[in-house]
Specification:
Blueprint lengths: L3 H6 L5 H8 L3 H9 L1 E5 L3 E5 L17 H15 L4 H15 L8 H18 L3 H7 L2 E4 L2 E4 L1 H7 L2 E3 L5 E5 L8 E3 L9 E2 L6 H9 L4 H8 L3 H14 L1
Antiparallel strand pairs: 1-2, 3-4, 5-6, 6-7, 7-8
Length: about 240
């Protein structure tokens, strides 16, 4: 297994790649990792601190480590739920403080205790924009406070190591295809769980003009999974 520090520090993905893997615009992922400063009417300046881990690198080169991808996956789930990040920044800061875990968005504690902390935050903040936004992420189901289904769907795709940090991510944009990012395989680049081929290698062969059946046989990827991966790639093109 890759050294834990490597998962935090080794730049594996460009911002554009990381954004594509979790299904958000490149500009959005860049803002998550670099923060922002915006001038608003009335001479007001709003500042948003980074919430995703980036590694130092020249612009345009790989700068997102594996842990940053895991954090981005969680934010993509929140975005998919229709909740603006600026509305829940205070809640995310509270998660970090109360759970006492660095990089909490990439930690198992988020999945085991995060919904409870966020629900309590929403109750304390009442009928405010922040409180209402958090309530869109957390629901009460069978007497337990859990994440809403759209968020859970993303979060179920993460596996953790014995220290409680993400070690494998099932990418969320696919229906049939089982594609994962694993820093121990393929230098962290997405691979098919069936056959272990890198997604980009498979797509490159298809783009060269080879029939899907031939690509499927060459890389050992089941045809339905290959068709699914191609559909996603064409939508993103």
């Amino acid at each position: 297994m890759a050294d834990l520090s490597q998962r935090f520090n080794a730049p594996l993905y460009t911002v554009a790649e990381a954004a594509r893997f979790v299904g958000v615009p490149t500009s959005t992922f860049a803002t998550w990792g670099r923060g922002y400063t915006r001038d608003r009417p009335g001479g007001i300046t709003s500042v948003g601190a980074p919430v995703v881990t980036f590694a130092p690198a020249p612009r345009g080169q790989a700068s997102v480590p594996f842990i940053g991808l895991a954090e981005g996956l969680v934010l993509a789930a929140i975005r998919e739920a229709g909740v603006p990040l600026q509305r829940i920044r205070p809640a995310l800061a509270l998660l970090q403080d109360e759970l006492g875990f660095e990089h909490v968005l990439a930690s198992k504690r988020l999945f085991t205790d995060g919904a409870e902390v966020l629900y309590d935050y929403a109750e304390r903040t009442g009928d405010t924009p922040e409180g209402r936004s958090v309530r869109e992420l957390v629901v009460v189901r069978h007497g337990q406070r859990v994440f809403a289904e759209v968020v859970e769907t993303y979060l179920r795709g993460v596996e953790f190591d014995t220290k409680g940090y993400a070690r494998l991510i099932r990418l969320p944009r696919y229906g049939t295809a089982q594609i994962v990012a694993d820093p121990d395989r393929g230098f962290g680049q997405p691979i098919f769980t069936s056959g272990g081929a890198r997604l980009e290698d498979v797509l490159a062969m298809f783009r060269s003009g080879e029939p899907l059946r031939v690509v499927s046989e060459e890389y050992g990827v089941p045809l339905p999974e290959l068709e699914d991966a191609v559909r996603v790639a064409l939508r993103a093109a």
